[in-house]
Design goal:
Two copies of one chain form a homodimer. Chain A is of the alpha/beta class and 317 residues long. Chain A is 36% helix and 21% strand. At the A-B interface, helix 7 of A face helix 7 of B.
Chain lengths: 317, 317
């Protein structure tokens, strides 16, 4: 085959990252745009093309490219669509693969953004030699990719592996995007952790906390992390609570596919042991005997942007 | 191949059913013994052999048999063992495949009893032409088998598909066998439904119910069913509650593998629409948009004993 390159595009709730990847899995050049920088998907394609087309030209034009792989929320591999994505401005069903092919004259494939990250881990990351693992992305939202027997699970309609929407607290927090109550994503995402912070601070007005020095807008997973490392008890309690819920959920996931490992990924993992310790403890506490002390919880060793771009590009080959 | 027959053995919490099956999937002869008729696994093998050996002899002796397939709780396909089964008298790790081979001089394979039932559905049941489905057994306990891409999911250690132990109510009912709180099995099994009945009756002493005519020992899923069909409001409430929890759990399972169908199986399914209606409603209420009105809930059309024996025997071929 004469095509030397693939394009990997990762559509996140905030940023869309993209790059040109060679057959060895090296990202040769990359850039990003705001995902919701315009209201329409046509505007998105235009902004993408303004940065991506010059890259394509630099690497010899569209004839040098085997394909475009895109990872996006609610993307469907079978149909090349993005459907009812809760965290994007584009509503309904978007025929993204068609739009990309028309714009760039390069064949395009789509998959769930979290599936793309899982494929990145399988090909280039900590799960390189594993046949059964689950990737959980803890970012603005919570995504997941499930690998069984070395293959990504797509399911009957192509939407398998939406573990962020598993109900972990009956009648729990409302998820505005989906209308569901008590979903994992409402607790263990950056957004969820922020909500936990506000709740705990408001429910404990008598307890002092460094977090009270921040305005409600500045109360983010980063500021909670900073306060926790300074020994703030409420900030630590927030991570304990988040890890407790995540660990319980991981115990449930283990019951499905009995993975060798669960790979955590995304912004919240920057908290390191603050998150990992309570997560591991809660998972073990809730595991069946036959799974105890067997399932590894790992942090991804790929740079976040890289894994998603690499995973998306791996769709092409 | 000259071997004409396989043996399928289904080890349940109460009965062990076994039969001789030909290559067409016809059960030629079958029988059963009590699973816990003796305290030791050696006693079990002895009682099994007293009934099974004459059958083997009738069909030409062990040389005519390609193998023994056994479905059992907590059975491990990779190792041929039964490990820490909560509902059996045999504790620790039982090397069942070895015991069977030694006794009958026929090669033996093991799998989880619910996995065996799923394989039975795949080969001979309502899921015959499906590539992605989940089987849930609602019996004394709750078992499950997950089929993805036409294959049973075994996982890294061989214990995948233990969905009865998924936590559906945080800090909920204690499961004595596992020590876990709020597991699905504690609500949607025959045992769980009975516990729901007792709870609702005790919490509503002012409400009349036909169920109050039964002693607590006679309060079973069958008696609740009888009273519900006679229009008893509390009996109906018990099925509503059970279906609500089951439906919520099914919505979670859909997020995992995006199955075409979920096949329900076992004693509780005899309640028909009393269970099916609230289950379907609760599942749909808790599904993400991309899954709504897509996933079938089906009752198995195989006789319970047959599916498990057939599924276990299918391990052999």
């Amino acid at each position: 085959m004469k095509e030397k390159f693939a394009i990997g595009i990762d559509v996140g709730g905030t940023n869309t990252k993209f790059g040109i990847v060679n057959r060895k899995g090296e990202i040769l050049i990359q850039d990003r745009i705001k995902t919701n920088g315009t209201d329409s998907v046509d505007g998105f394609i235009l902004q993408l093309s303004e940065k991506l087309q010059p890259m394509i030209d630099e690497y010899g034009g569209h004839e040098n490219f085997a394909g475009i792989g895109m990872g996006a929320p609610n993307a469907n591999y079978y149909k090349g669509t993005i459907e009812y994505a809760a965290n994007l401005k584009w509503k309904g069903i978007i025929h993204m693969a068609d739009l990309l092919e028309k714009k760039f004259h390069i064949p395009a494939s789509l998959t769930n953004d979290a599936n793309a990250a899982a494929v990145g881990e399988l090909k280039y990351g900590v799960a390189k030699n594993m046949k059964d693992f689950i990737t959980i992305t803890l970012g603005t939202g919570v995504g997941s990719g499930i690998i069984i027997d070395g293959k990504i699970v797509l399911g009957h309609n192509g939407f398998a592996g939406e573990l962020g929407h598993v109900i972990v607290r009956h009648n729990g927090r409302l998820h505005k995007g989906t209308g569901l109550h008590g979903a994992l994503e409402s607790y263990v995402s950056a957004t969820g952790l922020r909500e936990t912070a506000i709740e705990i601070l408001q429910n404990n007005p008598e307890k002092p906390s460094l977090l009270r020095n921040y305005s409600i807008d500045d109360l983010t997973s980063e500021t909670v992390y900073i306060c926790a490392t300074q020994g703030d008890p409420i900030a630590n309690e927030i991570f304990e609570y988040t890890g407790q819920i995540l660990g319980e959920a991981l115990a449930t996931f283990v019951l499905f596919s009995a993975p060798e490992a669960i790979v955590l990924f995304g912004g919240l993992t920057k908290a390191g042991d603050l998150l990992m310790k309570p997560t591991r403890q809660a998972m073990e506490d809730n595991l069946l005997q036959v799974f105890k002390n067997q399932v590894k919880i790992l942090f991804s060793n790929l740079k976040e942007a890289d894994a998603a771009i690499l995973g998306a590009s791996a769709l092409v080959w």
